[in-house]
Amino acid sequence: MGSEKKFITVAELREHNKAGDLWISIQGKVYNVSDWVKVHPGGDTPLLNLAGQDVTDAFLAYHPGTAWQYLDKLFTGYYLEDYKLSEVSNDYRKLYFEIAKMGLFENKGHGTLYCLTCVALMLSIVVYGVLKSESVLVHLVCGMLLGMLWIQSAYIGHDSGHYQVMSSPKCNRVVQLIAGNCLTGISIAWWKWTHNAHHIACNSLDNDPDLQHIPVFAVSSKLFNSITSCFYGRQLTFDPVARFLVSYQHFTFYPVMIFGRINLFIQTFLLVFSTRNVPHRVMNILGLLVFWTWFPLLVACLPNWPERVMFVLASFAVTALQHIQFCLNHFSANVYVGLPNGNDWFEKQTYGTIDISCSSWMDWFFGGLQFQLEHHLFPRLPRCQLRNISPVVRDLCKKHNLPYRSLSFWAANASTIRTLRSAAQEARDLTSPVPKNLVWEAVNTHG
Fold first, then answer.
1. For residue 424, pLDDT beyond 60
2. Where would I find the Cytochrome b5 heme-binding domain in this sequence (predicted)?
3. 72 burial level (CB within 10 Å; 0-12, 13-18, 19+)
4. How far apart are CA 41 and CA 316, in angstroms?
5. Distance between CA atoms of 368 and 329, rounded to whole angstroms?
């Protein structure tokens, strides 16, 4: 006869919520992940952010069925006694298992193959145009085409980072390194570090790095309180320089986006050469060396410096479209301060995301991320399936009286600018004191 089940309460589980003493529960079973957090493929941030909570919804969203085999050795022997499953979480889980039963997670389509073919074709045209033509106009078009190449490569890197491209994690990693490090110069390790934190704590001002743009941008006046970034482990100081820049952010938004790529290069190097535990550091550095070999050599092949500057600026300007899109998905959505709760996974994602409505023939341009809510709810779902499940997600939001915001590209731009302008007007109020200047934040803040 088996021994009786042992139980702990939600309050007792919540006490195990820090590094070295980190417990979570999944479907009523309690696991000790204090040591696992050090080798967790998704990094330590997701587990630390959800420590001491039931994380069933997040676990389902991020992990394939093969991940369950790793849980048994982490089981504490305890079950959660007084956990209450909300109706929306129950419906979310039903929808997840429905999607899994239909095989949509495995049905990846041929989108990635088409994208890779387009990227290879664009790269060939760019190289040929630079080397074989003496026309300034051709060089300008090649620069713009390179920007489009970077956009499509980033989408491939994003999809492979969510394991949507290949079935094997190792094959996905190869695609990540080629599409990310080698072709765009952005480390996939840096992307994973920030992106996982963004998904888990979507639109948390102190936990989501994608909203921490002080001193250049502030999407909420709550950032004027110089809050501490739990992600970067430092204060986001709202000083006189930040006040000045934020006061005009609705004018500077688009120009800054053109040069935003430079900050991504900086953030990449800051991480890969930091003292942090960077997964596959050597491979990431080698991939970056590939980019910083072919890209400068290509630019050097142009006949003079004016054309070189024109070429680089043209590529940056086109890529800015993607940077803008990422901001449209979240800047004007609801924000909050603090850590997310594991049992309001669905609600947090709906409040923090905005979809971009477009015709199906434009899906290639947005890389599937126009269905931002659908992607956040099911990050492993291949982009070709997002449009199919969109009506179901919309109905679920309607059933539970949750927001489902889907705006046109232009309406989303207008909404973002309104949000930036509103914060800018509040920043111009000089009645409250500000801390001393820390200019270096401008370089060391994620962009």
1. yes
2. 5-89
3. exposed
4. 32
5. 12
- DSSP notation for 317-334: HHHHHHHHHHHHTTTTS-
> If DSSP codes are grouped into helix, strand and coil, which group holds residue 6?
strand
Token representation of residue 295? 């890209």
List 54's β-bridge partners, or say none.
25
Residue type (1 letter), 47? L
pLDDT digits (tens, 9 = 90+) for 140-186: 999 999 999 999 999 998 988 887 777 677 888 888 899 999 999 99
**H or E stretch covering 408:** strand 406-408
Q: Cα dihedral sign for 40, 41, 46, 52? A: negative
- Alpha helix ranges (H) inside 353-439: 363-366, 372-377, 383-399, 409-427
Rg (CA), the chain: 23
- Side chain identity at residue 234, one-letter code: R
User: CA neighbours within 13 Å on the CB side: how many for 356?
Assistant: 28
**Nearest of 116, 106, 110 to residue 167 by alpha carbon:** 106
Treating both helix axes as pointing N-terminal to C-terminal, what angle do 188-200 and 249-272 enclose, rounded to 10 degrees?
A: 120
CB atoms within 10 A of CB 132: 8
pLDDT digits (tens, 9 = 90+) for 185-226: 999 999 999 999 999 999 999 999 999 999 999 999 999 999
Query: What span, in angstroms and rounded, lies between the C-alpha atoms of 238 and 241?
Result: 8
Distances in whole angstroms, Cα of residue 1 to Cα of each of 4, 75, 269: 9, 21, 59
The tokens of 110 are what?
A: 């041929």
DSSP three-state, residue 271: helix
Contact 173, 163 (CB under 8 A): no
